Amino acid sequence: MQARFCEEYVIDLNATQAAGRAGYSKRSAQHLGYQLLQNPLVTKRLAELVGDRTERTQITADVVLGELLRLARVDPLDVFDEHGGLLPVKDMPEDVRRAISSIEVTSNTMRGGDTVLTHKIKFWPKNNALQLLGQHLRLFADVVEHKDHDVEQAIREGKRRAGREA
Length: 166
Fold this sequence. Notes:
- This protein is mostly helical.
- It has helices spanning 2-12, 15-21, 29-38, 40-57, 61-73, 94-99, 126-136, 148-165; strands at 100-109, 115-123.
């Protein structure tokens, strides 16, 4: 069952779900999942499975960061030619194509019978990519503000508790 847990865990990295899918009791899956992750044999097997998957898929931290950087740096101007016309997708730079989340083409027939195509190109959100990159680089520090009276009150409370426990 431990081997099955390992195989299930690498699917979604959710110990509770993996324990349940591996056949452990649904009621104790959360506790057992945590316990299994503490087992040296299980962690060794998980490292092997993750390593195999990384080798097989060639997905590394560098690849993920590269994709995020691609999304963060995309320039919408690169979908147009020098005359302002939309480039065919095959002629767009690869970085731009990979940053596109969707392309919508609508056809409208005008009164004279001419057909006008409208292209809507949507890119993956740049702000999400920048946020993830910033978190990776630890650019955003979580700041907790303490007011002097909060600290003083905490000290008094600590001294009061210490006096009761002594």
